[in-house]
């Protein structure tokens, strides 16, 4: 198994910097996802690992070997794209076998490995079909088989599920994960879908404007976003302006600017350090908000509307300064009357403390 290292890589197009000083160590066997909005540099990073794009600065290492100057076909990576990119005039089996034939493997070996790869993605029955005779999900499974059949050191996937509808996407997410774990292969995945990133990855790299904002496990990313952008991009969040009043060891007290006299306790490890007097943001997740009064960690808000989501209610309220506040309530909850003034509270362990301005 091979690890991947990106060392201070940078890619410019003219005077536009598409990827800026990106450094990242991906452990052997790890599943790492680049998550970010359109244009944030995800594909550029992936293509620099594959070798289709050469960085202007920095190094790419695969398995401790500096491959920065090595062409793509000698890096031994397997790639899956958003568009299926199958050869239309070849059957499923021929598509999968292509990379092996190019490598001039013996016919029996090609056959054996093609069968194994098709079995891995559960497409043995489809070996003789042509791509036009397959569904979108089946085509992506062929693309996956074609990528792994050569036994690549690293599997690279660029939004492989973006063209599929939600249900199929979820099915294929499980399929990719199963194949990745069966092979134990180091995998770099690109998506702009935060749910996909959280559910599939060992670690997620959040990108914005060519830079990495945060690299963390899904749980830490959700629980401890390090800035406003990440807090908003990964899941929904409620944000309140405040001033740090007390800063202790993992415990902070914040005075809410738009709710005079209201204090918030924040407990638990925080990525950034704050001192007394700092402007800050306090965030809490919709599912952590309760319709309940409390001395601290509580604001008042006016009820706007509740939307039935099947598994829960999504409740929208207007807080001080006309800010939108969202909380989720169980299906069985009693929904407030229109325009009712209600108290929303949350626990100190659920509060998130963020810098007031993003870097
Ligand atoms: N060949 C190129 N010439 C000029 N600019 C480019 C080129 N390729 C990419 N860019 C720019 O670099 C930035 C990053 O592009 P990239 O394809 O990495 O984004 P992305 O995060 O993959 O976005 P998407 O989610 O839309 O695929 C974009 O602003 C893009 O316009
Ligand atoms: Mg892209």
Distance between the termini: 36 Å
Please describe the biggest sheet, giving its number of strands, its sense, and whether it closes into a barrel: 6 strands, mixed
**Which CATH C-level class of the largest domain is it?**
Alpha Beta
The named CATH superfamily of the largest domain: P-loop containing nucleotide triphosphate hydrolases
Overall body shape: elongated
Number of domains as seen in the coordinates? 2
Question: Secondary-structure element order, as H and E?
Answer: EEEHEEEHHHEHEHEEHHEEEEEEEEEE
Radius of gyration: 24 Å
Structural class assignment = alpha+beta
Short structural summary:
The protein is of the alpha+beta class.
Overview of the structural elements:
This protein is 23% helix and 35% strand. It is α+β, with helices and mostly antiparallel strands. It has two domains: 4-228, Rossmann fold; 255-355, OB fold (Dihydrolipoamide Acetyltransferase, E2P). It has a six-stranded mixed β-sheet, sandwiched between helices. Strands 13-12-11-14-20 form a five-stranded antiparallel β-sheet, with no helix packed on it. A five-stranded antiparallel β-sheet has the order 15-19-16-17-18, with no helix packed on it. Strand 11 and strand 12 (251-256) form a beta hairpin. Helix 3 (107-120) crosses helix 4 and helix 4 runs parallel beside helix 5. It starts with a strand and ends with a strand. Magnesium ion is lined by residues 42-43.
